[in-house]
Specification:
Elements lengths: L21 E2 L6 E2 L4 E4 L5 E3 L3 E3 L5 E3 L3 E11 L5 E10 L2
Parallel strand pairs: 4-8
Antiparallel strand pairs: 1-3, 2-7, 3-6, 5-6, 7-8
Length: 92
Amino acid sequence: MAHKKAGGSASNLKDSKGQRLGVKLYGGEHAKAGAIIVRQRGTRYFAGLNAKRSNDDSIFAIKEGFVKFKKKMKRGYDRKLKQRVEVNVMAK
């Protein structure tokens, strides 16, 4: 009879860290130049006034101001209207 439990392998029990995606600065909050407003994969949010999209699709402020989210209707390549959320940074 065994005196120890079997110490089997645990190859599938690892998990990766979360990517910390999402909105970092909400509407009405103050953003400094270069501050990240939204971290995202793909383009759920689109850059508007005084905001730019980086290589990893994050949106950041290029000027100091207050964050404002605005819903817009945009026409896609299939000629259908879709609702888009635009991120603007309004100057003081």
